[in-house]
């Protein structure tokens, strides 16, 4: 079976103050194979991030199924899974790269990357080595490793997000504009790492505005407009 199968996914938002309902994504269906990379493009507000957040279960879908073939649980509908199952999957199997940095208070950059491995019960020494290698790969200067990331620039924060997720080599990785504030040299590093992860059977769904970046990385690309896939 597919690693991930999405069937008739829909999500609306209700604005209580205005007594108004807004449609986000509607009747979205697609499969993701093991080791495949699917790209989703479209204008801002078209519903791209909503799809990723429903898969990650940041949002609860209004309708539809999101069946993920988990290594731990077998086929599980992420739209109906328990909170315990979702927390386990986020820790061990599903990674999410956001445009926005979310770090525990008084946690340094290196500690943040290490934490991704430590919560998987990795040996602390190995976690530290892997974190340093990933930070160096994304060209975050060693002088920043022991600093709190709230002082970082937008590009530095995004690189830290990438390092935190990719150091785990997740089975399924969701990428929400992973190159939004990066220079061209760093984009090439991201592209190379994505190809490396693909070659080790990491499956990915990514949202992009940079169509040139997607070439040679994505196996399939879907265009979304007004919440629905279009040809």
From TrEMBL:
Keywords: ATP-binding, Nucleotide-binding. This is Alpha-D-ribose 1-methylphosphonate 5-triphosphate synthase subunit PhnL. One of its GO terms (biological process) is organic phosphonate catabolic process. The keyword ATP-binding applies. It comes from Sporobacter termitidis DSM 10068. GO terms for molecular function: ATP binding; ATP hydrolysis activity. InterPro entries: AAA+_ATPase, ABC_transporter-like_ATP-bd, P-loop_NTPase. Residues 4-230 form the ABC transporter domain.
């Amino acid at each position: 079976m597919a690693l991930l199968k999405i069937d008739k996914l829909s999500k609306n938002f209700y604005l209580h103050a205005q007594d108004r309902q807004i449609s986000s994504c509607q009747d979205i269906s697609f499969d993701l194979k093991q080791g495949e990379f699917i790209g989703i493009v479209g204008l801002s507000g078209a519903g791209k991030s909503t799809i990723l957040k429903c898969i990650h279960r940041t949002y609860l879908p209004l309708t539809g199924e999101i069946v993920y073939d988990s290594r731990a649980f077998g086929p599980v509908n992420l739209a109906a899974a328990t909170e315990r199952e979702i927390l386990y999957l986020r820790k061990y199997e599903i990674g999410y790269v956001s445009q926005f940095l979310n770090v525990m208070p008084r946690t340094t950059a290196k500690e943040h990357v290490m934490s991704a491995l430590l919560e998987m019960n990795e040996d602390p020494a190995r976690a530290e080595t892997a974190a340093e290698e990933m930070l160096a790969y994304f060209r975050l200067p060693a002088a920043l490793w022991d600093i709190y990331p709230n002082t970082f620039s937008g590009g530095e924060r995004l690189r830290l997000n990438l390092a935190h997720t990719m150091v785990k080599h997740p089975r399924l990785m969701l990428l929400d504009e992973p190159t939004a504030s990066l220079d061209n040299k760093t984009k090439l590093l991201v592209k190379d790492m994505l190809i490396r992860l693909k070659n080790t059977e990491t499956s990915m769904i990514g949202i992009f505005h940079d169509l040139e970046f997607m070439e040679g990385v994505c196996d399939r690309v879907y265009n979304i407009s007004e919440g629905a896939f279009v040809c």
